[in-house]
Amino acid sequence: MGQPRKSVRAGRTGLSGRTAVVAMIFALGSAGCGIVGGGSPADRPLDGLSVSSPRFRDEAPLPADYTCTGKVGNPPLRWSGVPQKETKSIALVVDANNAQGAAEVHWVLFNIDPLTTELAQNSVPRGALQGLTSSGKVGYTPPCRPDDTYRFSVYALDSKLTLKQGAVLRQTLEDIAQHTVARGRLSAAHIE
């Protein structure tokens, strides 16, 4: 008699597997396998972004200026390859992965204008918001552990996030994962 009813949960998320994918991404991130980046809104392979910095190369050491012993703040970053038609905002997640597999988030920046292609040293683009880090603070938390790998991941999102400044880390990461259409990463092998 009639059509089977759709689950309210599936109707809200759009794709029935999206919630499971987001939970899996967060679990992998907590284990140090990558904070965000296994799923996409269309459950398809993600486009790749190119991420670089004028201050260090991929897999090279992070200059001490951008660590807890320096006084500069965040390093400058550049990115390219953003799919212009789909992208409504950019997000940045800086995290560390150590030998014990523990991940620590040092910065979450979201709602960056989609036409932005670089981030200046020690700056937050106009209109962008910052979420809480693993330390419970808002803003760039300079890394301190000399042997960790530090990852600067840039995400192209299919919408602006409806979160406020100081948003809870877990919610921010989940929202980024749900809306990612492209991503790229620059890694620092350790602190110089």
From TrEMBL:
It holds the Pfam family PBP. The chain crosses the membrane at residues 20-39. The keyword Membrane applies. Keywords: Membrane, Protein kinase inhibitor, Transmembrane, Transmembrane helix. It comes from the Bacteria. InterPro entries: PEBP, PEBP-like_sf, YbhB_YbcL/LppC-like. NCBIfam families: YbhB/YbcL family Raf kinase inhibitor-like protein. PROSITE patterns: PROKAR_LIPOPROTEIN. Belongs to the UPF0098 family. This is YbhB/YbcL family Raf kinase inhibitor-like protein. One of its GO terms (molecular function) is protein kinase inhibitor activity.
